[in-house]
Amino acid sequence: MTETNRPSAELKALDRLVGTWAVTGGAEGTVRYAWMPGRFFLSQHVELTQFGEPVNGLEVIGNLRPFGEPAGADVVSRYYDSNGNTFDYVYELTGDTLITWAGAKGSPAYYEGTFSADGTSVTGDWVYPGGGGYRSTMTRM
Question: What's the pTM value of the predicted model, to 2 decimals?
Answer without folding.
Answer: 0.92
